[in-house]
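Q: C-alpha cells for this one, please.
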Amino acid sequence: MSNHLEHDDFAEKPRRPIFRPILSILISGLAALCLIPLGFITGLSNPRLLEWITMGFPPTWPGTLAGVAIACLVMIPMIWIARSGSLDLIAFFLMWEALIMCGFFFLGITAWNLEGGLGQGILSTAPLVVLINCTGFAILLTVLGCTYAFLKSFGFRSKSIAPIVAGNDGRLKWFLRGIGFVTILLLALPMARTGIVPLLAYASEGAGGTAFGSVDPRLMLIESPALRAIYNLGYGLMPFVTAGLILYCIRKPIQFLKIDGIIIAILLIAQLLSGNRFPLALAAIATISLLSMERRIPRWILITAIVMYMFLFTVLGGFTGLLRWDKEQLFTGNPVSNSIEAAFTGNNLIDMRDASWVMSQWDFEPLNGMTYLGGLTSFIPSGIFPQKREWHLGLTAVRLVGWDDSTHPGLRISFFGESFLNFGLAGVITLGTVLGILFGSLLWVFHQASAARPSSLNRNLRILILMEMTLHLSNTSNAFSFWALGAILLIQWTLVDCFAPPDPVDHE
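A: Here is the predicted structure, written as C-alpha cells:
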C-alpha cells in the first residue's frame, strides 16, 4: 500500500472545480467581518463575561479539560499524518501547542517562580486560560475538518498543483543561494555591530548570571530599532532558506561539500550563536516536511520521527536552558529528566503561566484590536511610527504585569490569549473560525502537492511558507516575520515563476 494518500483521492476527474487560495482568504476575512460586530451586538466581545471564572478557589475541571485538549492536539494531527504519509507545519504546531498546554500541570511550580506573591493570582486565572484555549482549538479543529471535507467532497483541485515548469526548481536554487547569503549577513550584522555573541555571553558560574549581569544579552543585541529589524528579518527567513537548500543537498549529497553545504553550515552557526533556538527547530521540521512531500516515507517511520523530534526538542530546550542559567543541575541526578523538568518549569514551555499571569493583572477592559493594529504596522520603522511599540502584543503584556518593556522582549500569552484580550470570547470564536478555514484549505493543497508527481520544491516551499504565515495570525508579536515571509514569497514568484517559459503541457 502506498505511504501517501491513495492516488484515487486526487485522481484527476473531468471538469473538477479549481480551488484558488484567494477564496479562502476572502471567506475567512468575511467571517471575521461578521463575527466581530456580532460579538459586540451579543456582548460576547466583553471579556468580563468570563471574569467570574477567576474568582474563588481554583476548580478541578480545568485539569480534565486540558488533558482532553492535549490528547486531541496530538492524536488528530497524528491521524492525518499517518493517512497522508507526509508531515505538515500545521500538524507540528498543533502538537507543539499540546506541549505548551502540558505547562498547566506544572503551574504548582512555575506560578511561584515569580517574585511578589503572584502565585495565587496565577493559579486562580489559569482555568480561564485553559477554557479559552480549549474553546478556540475545538472551533479551529471543527472548522478545519469541515473545510477539508468540503473541498474533498466536491473534488476541488488547487490551481497551483497542475502546472510544473521543469526549470523552476533550478531557478529556485539560485534564488535560495542569494537569499541565504543575505540571511547570513542579517544574522551576523547585529553581533558584529554590538560585539555581543549571545551564546558565548553567559558567565560560567551562578544561576541566571551572564557576562552582562542580569540582562539577557539577546536583548542587548537588538536594542537598536534598526538592528532589531535586521535581526528579525534574518530570524524569519533562516528556517525556510535552510530547509530548501538542505533538500537540494539531499537530492545530490555531494552538494553538502560545496557552496550549498557551506551556506547551510554558516546559517546554522550564525543562528545558534545569536541565542535563539526556535528557528533551528523550525528549519529541522520544515526539512522533514519537504522531504516527506518529495519522497514516500513509511508511515511508521514518519510517526516515530515526529514523536522522537518532539521528545528531543523538549529535552534540548530544557538542556540549553540549564546550560545558560543553572549548569549545576546538569551534574545532579539524571540530566535527561532534569532537562525535561526544566523545559516545563523554566522559560521554554511557559505560555500557560505567562498568560495566566497577564490576565491576573488585567482589568478585563478589552484592547479592541490594538495589538492587531500593531501587527499591521510592524513593518514600518519605529522612527517613522513609534506607536507600534505601544501596540506590540508582547510588550503590551509586559506593561500589563507592571514590568519595564525596555528590558524585556515580551511575554507569550498562549495561542488564543491575544484574541481574548482584544475581543473577549467573540475574538476566540473568530480566530478559531478564520484559522480553521485557512488551515483546512492549506492542508488540502499540501496533501495534493504531496501526492502529485513529479514533485516541485518551488511549489512545496511556497506552501510551507504560507502555512507559517497563517500560524503567525495567532500571535501578532511575530507579525514582522509574517511580512518578511510575504515579501520573500513575492520575490520568489517574481524571479522564479514570472520569468519561467510557458509550459506547453497541461498536466491536468
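A few notes: The first strand starts at residue 18 and ends at 19. The CA atoms of residues 249 and 257 lie 9 Å apart.
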